[in-house]
Design a protein that fits this description.
684 residues; alpha+beta; 11-stranded antiparallel sheet; 8-stranded parallel barrel; 37 strands; disordered N terminus
């Protein structure tokens, strides 16, 4: 159902509901709400002004201390000439969750802003996608092109007087007693091994700036919180970046930086910007994490038969494409089947074209379509096409996947041809999962074309395609942008350079899992027997000193990635096949939960792990690293005083019952250094 109005006036009233979601405009007030959150605005000809934000579950309501438009666009008139409202129910697709959608368009003469609000059932946050069109007679502040430092007192004092930063959203509530925190993320994991940075602030009279995708603000008197999620790449690679993502002072919070410049706007076509999510939660960390995760889990529907995977990709053994061919692939399938994999991905080299990473000479990552046969199956390596490999995979219950590197030349101008190449592989072989690599996005047109490519493939495959978006290098999309397209290929780690330690990978996933679903991460484990001489003989954390079962267990929180040639494993490696088989039987249930980190940060000598929450039941995955203690009180997300029964699924632990202490800790026992256990727990 769709309501439209070219101009909303005080006499008109429109209303639409979907499950517990509803939106309506009456007189000059627009309301969006569900059972968890309610946000009210003054209509103001579509140039919305927030009146209040309500946490309906915790019965907390914040009222605006001053009315002003939520959005600000430098060089644009203060008043909208006309507003348009559209209400619609967007049904679920195989990929996207159903939602109530509220589209608000504000027209400022030659410039227009479209905001599409997404309201999901039983969700404590409302997402908003921004689109711009038209002409702006102003330069917007770009920190990369400006010598002024955003953090300087001089610049921040000027912000309120002569602002040049576009504001995506604004919340202005009274009172000085706010504590804020910003969470900044780093991808390009080939050069970064610290992927999460948290910073805390006390609000003050003066503007403060914060970088990061996530911003929490907790009111110290009522112990309630709100949060903003900027759905954008990591801060250091965002487009047209103003130097920060959030500006704030006592009770006033701004999300800034849409990721576009005025020169990129079109007068005819809407240009999509970064998105902004506003949510509410109780003041404790657990409630905030769960509120954020509830929203994140609404974006993309997880279909176990499509999205769950235990993938093997042979690139981790550093032979690159030197051995790739039909015979090699068939041998890998047999060995992978013994191990228990569900997906086998042919990386760079299956295609006729030669990339820069090829072992057969340096090719290209840009002008792929100069060679019209670039994305044809290599006729010498695979003289029968991929048919024998696909056939053998089906016999063994293994899905075949491919690596793909779209041509970045001229702002991804060949996006249609790249999409059609993947569609042709889907039509010919049924291949639907593609690792997308070699991406560098320098401007908005490149991003738009790249998104068009993904959308074209999604449409042609009825949303059955899955993209493993590589975040290891280049200028890409980070952890909170393009999340509706599949999962993230997190790391390239290699024993060849001694840059693989199981506790490093575990730490990265542990840190990320506080703020995003680890189910969306492909997490690698390597052939720990390779390159033992690359590690110091006395290094107690070297991979060869750790059992292969433990190495695999560090990946179970995400989508495990066997980053090696299975045919090169020693015979003892296949002893973990029963473990993998058991894991796959519970993977769907385990990944249907909200999963968060517990214990201490992985360090190589910690007690650490994850808790998967499903009401009063769930799972605990506990790791004893190189700790001398057999017993440990581990911090959990269980409530103090709860009696918990834990039953072992896999690992070295034993069934036990325990009482959660006043600090939320549970006493656990594991017999050996570098041992683990996955438990199913129930609260008694």
């Amino acid at each position: 159902m769709l309501f439209r109005s070219s101009l909303i006036t005080a006499a008109e009233s429109k209303h639409l509901s979907y499950m517990d979601c509803n939106a309506f405009i009456q007189n000059d007030t627009l309301v969006m709400q569900n059972s968890r959150i309610r946000r009210s605005f003054v209509w103001n000809n579509g140039h919305l002004m927030t009146v209040s934000l309500q946490d309906r579950l915790n019965r907390t309501k914040w009222r605006s201390g001053s009315l002003a438009p939520d959005c600000f666009w430098p060089g644009v008139p203060d008043s909208s000439e006309q507003g348009t409202l559209q209400l619609a129910v967007e049904p679920a697709t195989p990929r996207l969750s159903a939602r109530l959608q509220v589209t608000v368009i504000a027209e400022f003469g030659a410039f227009s802003v479209k905001r599409i609000f997404r309201i999901y059932p039983d969700c404590p946050a409302i997402g908003c996608d921004y689109y711009l069109k038209g002409i702006v007679q102003a330069d917007w502040f770009d920190a990369k092109a400006n010598s002024d430092a955003l953090e300087s007192i001089e610049f921040l004092s000027k912000f309120s007087q002569h602002p040049r930063i576009p504001v995506l959203d604004r919340l202005a509530f009274s009172g000085p007693h706010w504590r804020a925190s910003a969470v900044r993320f780093f991808d390009r994991t080939d050069v970064n091994n610290n992927l999460v940075e948290e910073q805390s602030f006390l609000s003050f009279l003066k503007w403060q700036a914060a970088a990061g995708n996530i911003f929490f603000a907790q009111h110290r008197l009522n112990n309630q919180a709100l949060f903003m999620l900027k759905e954008a790449p990591c801060s250091d690679v965002q487009l047209a970046y103003p130097g920060a993502d959030f500006l704030f002072r006592n009770g006033e919070f701004l999300a800034v930086g849409p990721g576009v410049t005025p020169s990129e706007l079109s007068q005819e076509v809407w240009l999509r910007c970064y998105s902004l999510v506003v949510g509410v939660a109780a003041g404790d960390k657990r409630s905030q994490m769960q509120a954020l995760r509830t929203y994140q889990d609404r974006i993309r529907i997880r279909k176990p038969e499509r999205d769950l995977m235990l993938m093997m990709n042979t690139w981790g053994d550093r032979n690159r494409d030197a051995r790739l061919g039909e015979g090699f692939a068939l041998r890998e399938l047999q060995a992978g089947h013994r191990l228990g994999i569900s997906h086998f991905q042919l990386d760079d080299g299956w295609q006729t074209g030669i990339s820069k990473n090829s072992a057969h000479g340096e090719g290209s990552w840009q002008d792929n379509w100069i060679n019209k046969d670039y994305w044809q199956v290599h006729p010498e390596k695979f003289p029968n096409g991929l048919t024998p490999v696909i056939k053998k995979g089906k016999e063994l219950g293994i899905e075949i996947c491919l690596w793909f590197n779209p041509s970045s030349q001229d702002q991804y101008k060949s996006w249609r041809a790249d999409a059609d190449a993947m569609i042709a592989l889907y039509n010919a072989y049924g291949i639907r999962t593609f690792k997308i690599d070699g991406v560098f996005v320098p401007d908005k047109q490149s991003e738009t074309n790249f998104r068009n490519m993904l959308d074209r493939v999604m449409e042609a495959t009825a949303d059955e395609a899955v993209f493993n978006l590589d975040v290891t290098a280049g200028r890409r999309f980070g952890y909170h942008y393009f999340t509706e397209y599949g999962n993230l290929f997190l790391e390239n780690r290699y024993t060849d350079w001694a840059n693989y330690y199981p506790h490093w990978t575990l730490r990265n996933v542990w840190m990320l899992s506080r703020y995003l679903p680890p189910q969306s991460l492909q997490v690698e484990f390597l052939n720990k027997w390779r390159n033992e001489q690359k590690y110091a003989a006395a290094d107690p954390l070297a991979p060869q000193r750790i059992s292969f079962a433990y190495v695999f267990a560090t990946t179970m929180v995400g989508q495990p990635l066997a980053w090696f040639e299975a045919s090169g494993l020693p015979e003892e490696a296949f002893d973990i096949a029963p473990l993998i088989k058991t894991f796959r039987t519970i993977q769907s249930e385990w990944h249907a939960c909200q999963i968060f980190p517990i214990g201490d940060e992985p360090s190589g000598s910690s007690w650490t792990g994850f808790q998967a929450i499903a009401g009063q039941n769930g799972f605990l995955l506990i790791f004893r690293e190189n700790s001398e203690n057999e017993r440990h009180w581990i911090h959990t997300l269980l409530d103090p005083g709860q009696k918990v029964r834990c039953r072992v699924i896999v690992g070295a632990g034993k069934d036990f019952s325990g009482l959660v202490d006043p600090n939320g800790r549970l006493s656990v026992t594991l017999p050996d250094r570098f041992s683990y256990s996955l438990y199913r727990y129930s609260v008694q």
